[in-house]
Amino acid sequence: MRLILLWLLNAVALLAVAYLLPSIHVASFGAAMFAALLLGLVNAVLRPLLLLLTLPVTLLTLGLFIFVINGLMFWLAGSLIEGFAVDGFWPAVLGSLLYSVISWALASLLGSGKR
């Protein structure tokens, strides 16, 4: 149940990012849910591999290259899903940063689930 609620909150966060940034477009709530699902899958599968492959660059830039990786994954999701579009690389980096902050804030409202 908690996983479905987090998925819905991430879709709401994606809609909020599209509302705040004019270079990110989400057609509907269904497209936002599908994009949130794809972003979660990409973060779970592709992100660890990319972090491992780019470890020297990440260390050289003191971790700032992770923002580039997050932006590329956000841009990838925007190019794969119809109804979710990102206009370029730098809007993708800013959108991924804003998406992370908003989804973290919404998830923190749920609490940890432990009693």
Polypeptide structure, described:
It is built from 5 helices and 2 strands; from the N terminus they run αβαααβα. Helix 1 packs across helix 5. The chain has a two-stranded antiparallel sheet. The chain is globular. With 115 residues, the chain is mainly alpha-helical. The relative contact order is 0.18.
User: What is the 3D shape?
Assistant: globular
Strand composition percent: 5-15%
Helix content: over 70%
Tally of distinct domains = 1
Catalogue the unreliable spans: none
Instruction: Tell me the Rg in angstroms.
Output: 14 Å
- Report on the biggest sheet: 2 strands, antiparallel
Question: How many angstroms separate the termini?
Answer: 16 Å
Query: What is the quaternary state of this protein?
Result: single chain
The tally of beta strands, per DSSP, is: 2
Determine the mean pLDDT.
Answer: 93
Mind sketching the topology for me?
Blueprint: H1 2-20, E1 24-26, H2 29-53, H3 55-60, H4 65-80, E2 84-86, H5 89-110
Antiparallel strand pairs: 1-2
Helix pairs in contact: 1-2, 1-5, 2-4, 4-5
